[in-house]
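Order emerges. For instance:

***
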Amino acid sequence: MNLNATLFAQFVVFFILAMFTMKFVWPPLMKALDERAEKIASGLAAADRAKAEMAAAEKGAQAELAAARDEGQKRISDAEKRAQSIVEEAKRTAADEAARIIEAARAEAEQQVTRAREELRNQVAAIAVKGAEQILKREVNATAHADLLNQLKTEL
C-alpha cells in the first residue's frame, strides 16, 4: 500500500467531510446556537424589565400605603374635630336649656310670690275686718266698705 495514496485519499475524504459538515451540519447547528443565545438574552432582558417593574410597583404600593395612612389620619382628625364640635354644641344647648329652665323657674317663683302676697293681703284684710268686727262688736259689711279694704290691701 502506498502511503502517499492513502494520505491523499484521507485528505480527500477529510475535505469532503469538512465540506459536507460546513454545508449541511454547521448552519443548523449555528442557527440553533444563535436561537438559544437570543432566547437567553431575551429572558435576561425580560427578567431585568420584570425586576424594574417590580421595583416600580413596590414604590407605587408604598406611595399608596402612605396616602392611605395619611387619609386615615385625616379622617380620624376630622372625626375628632366633629366630635369636639358636637360636644361643644351639646354644652351650648344644655346651657341655653338650663338658662331657660332657670328663667321659667324664676318666673314661676315670682308668680307664686305674687299670689302668696295677694292671698296674704286678702287674709290680712279678712283678719283686719274680723278684728274690727270684734272691736266694734258688730258686723262690718265687706261690700259696703270695699274702698276702705282695697286701700288697706294696697298699704300692706
Notes: The radius of gyration is 61 Å. The chain has a mean pLDDT of 87. Helices lie at 3-136, 146-155.
